[in-house]
Design goal:
mainly beta; 3-stranded antiparallel β-sheet
């Protein structure tokens, strides 16, 4: 039941996020993206590559005890860290089965951004929404396996102004 409540919360936040709207000409418009392709000017030549391989040697069928999550800057102002309005990708390195990556951001304890990417539909994440119009935020990327009560792994991400 808790998973359903969490999923419903993510859906509500995602529905209110600007990057979920299909507004032609806007960043992350559904019409301008496709799985594993960056919706950016062709001059950047950037693409999203998600790695879901690896694992530790051991007994057959043994799960990787330490999944690794990392963010990667896709569109950056040059300082190498996430800032409001920039675009990141979440890289996953694990042998465990996972279904989705949830990114949630808070300002002063209030959820202002939510975005979910599934194994089959991943694309970069623009750090802004209708509720998040500027400023720093504390974000978390959670690696989710549907049916489990807790995330497989979590990655804190500090977004600067």
């Amino acid at each position: 039941m808790r998973s359903l409540i969490v999923l419903a919360s993510v859906v509500v936040i995602a529905a209110s996020a600007a990057n979920c709207a299909d507004v032609p000409g806007e960043a992350n418009s559904i019409g301008s993206i496709a799985p594993s392709v960056l919706a950016a000017p062709p001059s950047t030549g950037a693409t999203l590559t998600v790695t879901a391989t690896g694992g530790k040697k051991g007994k057959p069928g043994a799960a990787d005890p330490t999944p690794d999550l990392a963010y990667r800057m896709v569109i950056d102002d040059g300082n190498g860290v996430p800032n409001y309005g920039e675009t990141i990708a979440i890289d996953v390195l694990t042998a465990q089965t996972w279904n989705q990556i949830d990114v949630t951001c808070y300002q002063n304890g209030v959820a202002v951004f939510g975005s979910a990417r599934t194994v089959d539909y991943q694309y970069p994440i623009r750090l802004q929404s209708a509720m998040w119009t500027g400023g720093a935020a504390d974000c978390t990327a959670d690696l989710i396996a549907w049916g489990q009560k807790a995330p497989i792994a979590s990655l804190p991400i500090t977004v600067l102004e």
